[in-house]
Amino acid sequence: MPPTVRRRVIDLAGTGVPVIELTGTGGGPRLTVLAGVHGCEYAPMAAVRQWAGLLGQRDLHGSVVAVPVLNLGAFRARSPFVVPEDGKNLNRCFPGDPAGSHADRLAHAAFTQLIEGSDALVDAHAGDLVEALEPFALYDAGPGEDRARDLAIGYGLGYVIRQEPGPDRAVAGSTSAAAAEAGIPAITAEAGGCGLVEQAAVAAHVRGLDGVLAVLGMADGEPARPVAPPVHLRRFIWLRSEAEGWWEPSVRPGEQVAAGQALGTVSSLDGSELRQAITAPAAGVPMFITSSPAVAADGLLLGLGAA
User: Fold this and answer.
1) CA 122-126-127 angle, 5° bins
2) I want to staple 40 with a disulfide (CB 3.0 to 4.6 A). Which of 80, 133, 152, 247 is the partner?
3) Quick check: pTM over 0.85?
4) Is 146 helix (H, G, I), strand (E, B) or coil?
5) Are 236 and 161 contacting, i.e. CB atoms less than 8 angstroms apart?
6) What is the full DSSP assignment across 114-155?
7) Rounded CA gap, 51 and 42, in Å?
């Protein structure tokens, strides 16, 4: 029997955010699915819209709360990475602060109204406007990490990254990190990039969300399985530019690189000065690479997944 579908708008820090709620027959887990935490990552937004529509026609055990676009201010302004109201990266603000600036309040509202009380969380992402990306799923070490690892594997992407807590982790203040600290199994799933709605990336997210349903026992039937099991990585190393300039990568996302291998250069805008030669600090795979030549001092160049 198809689930009951309720579409409504909820108030998150003064912004009306559309939410799709699907309630199946009988008991079961509550899965929360977010997209649009970053305003220009369009492939997962398209996927959540499509997946929720298809799920309304299937048998469902438990309930799903799906948010196609969480960060409406950034979406409307076509603002990559940051919330236009205060210039903060929303996915560095969780679990949020009700007394903080807009991004802090939005994170707090989303955490308390959407994430808390869930049995699992999927935050669907892609490379933003200036990021090319190799699909991967990331989860954080913590009380629910065994279940989170199962969700990450079930999403069916080529790489799975486990992130240790502490000052050296690449991503702090994210939805999945805050959920993990609260004991909620959570993953960040990444497919797509460069602000494009590529159908292959949309399909990867739809398959991945079906895979999560299967792991949680929320839907009948088995999703399509990947041809090969994912590669598991235990470090996520983000490399930054020392000075502003012209960034020219020499590798691509998903390409195997050796320790010490050249990854790209940052040069002066007139081309006369090499300002930085970027090399791999360890053997691994670039998970994402900044696709724009324009980089600022301390600008993010790429994220390297390593064993």
Assistant:
1) 150
2) 80
3) yes
4) helix
5) yes
6) IITT-SEEEEEE---TTEEE--EEEEE-STTHHHHHHHHHHT
7) 14
List, by residue range, all CATH 3.40.630.10 domains of the chain: 4-231
Contact between 147 and 59 under an 8 Å Cβ cutoff? The reply is no
Mean pLDDT for the chain? 96
Instruction: Give the H or E element holding residue 23.
Output: strand 15-23
Facing residues of 63 across strands?
23, 30
**Cα(87)–Cα(90) distance, rounded to whole angstroms?**
9
Task: Point out the least confidently predicted range of 94-103, 136-145, 201-210.
Answer: 136-145
Q: Hey, what amino acid is at 271?
A: G
Q: Which CATH code is given to the segment(s) 4-231? A: 3.40.630.10
Rounded CA-CA distance 70/93 in Å is 14
Give which of 6, 17, 74, 2 is closest to 41, Cα–Cα: 74
> Which residues of the chain does CATH 2.40.50.100 include?
234-306
Distance of CA 74 to the CA centre of its chain: 16
Does the pLDDT of residue 177 top 90, yes or no? yes
pLDDT of 222 strictly over 70: no
125 half-sphere exposure, CB direction, 13 A CA radius: 28
* Relative orientation angle of helices 199-216 and 42-55, to the nearest 10 degrees: 50
Fold of 234-306: OB fold (Dihydrolipoamide Acetyltransferase, E2P) (2.40.50)
Mean pLDDT, range 46-51, rounded to an integer: 98
Number of neighbouring beta carbons within 10 Å of residue 244: 16
Question: For residue 39, what are the CA distances in angstroms to 115, 155, 203?
Answer: 19, 22, 20
pLDDT in tens, 112-124: 999 999 999 999 9
